[in-house]
Amino acid sequence: MKFMMFVCTDTEPETDESLVPDIETWVAENDAAGRRVEGSVLGSPAAATTVRVRGGDLLVSDGPFAETKEVIVGFDILECADLDEAVEVARKHPMAYNGRLELRPFVDLAD
């Protein structure tokens, strides 16, 4: 099963840095196991462009559409047996401690 894991900031990070896993170790382990298909850090929200069409008109604006203190700062595409495995992979990611991770399964549109 493929999952999109959104890597997000959080307003209440872990205060004990000794508990936070190393990101390079997490990437290496999950790449080697074939669980991490792809991942990347995203540009800042200030670099975002929002695209909408309303009443047939194209509306393009700078920055994110919604104002929020928590932003998506990266992503990973995971290939896991099921949600339980994806949760275990996510719980070992540093941003599970300093931010938050959102897992969403990919939908097979052929079904």
Largest sheet: 4 strands, antiparallel
Please name the fourth-level CATH homologous superfamily: Dimeric alpha+beta barrel
Indicate the CATH topology. Answer: Alpha-Beta Plaits
- How many strands appear in the DSSP assignment? 6
Mean pLDDT: 92
State the name of the first-level CATH class. Alpha Beta
Low-confidence spans: none
Family: Belongs to the YciI family.
Protein name: Transcription initiation protein
Pfam family, one: YCII
InterPro entries: Dimeric_a/b-barrel (IPR011008), YCII (IPR005545)
Characteristics:
111 residues, alpha+beta, Alpha-Beta Plaits, four-stranded antiparallel sheet, two-stranded antiparallel ribbon, 3 helices
Question: Can you give a write-up of this model?
Answer:
With 111 residues, the protein is α+β, with helices and mostly antiparallel strands. It has a single domain, classed as Dimeric alpha+beta barrel (Alpha-Beta Plaits). Helices cover 21% and strands 37% of the residues. The protein is built from three helices and six strands; from the N terminus they run E-H-E-E-E-E-H-H-E. The chain has a four-stranded antiparallel beta sheet with strand order 2-5-1-6. Strands 3-4 form a two-stranded antiparallel ribbon. Strand 3 (49-54) and strand 4 form a beta hairpin. The longest helix has 10 residues, at 23-32. The radius of gyration is 16 Å and the shape is globular. The two termini are 14 Å apart. The mean pLDDT is 92.
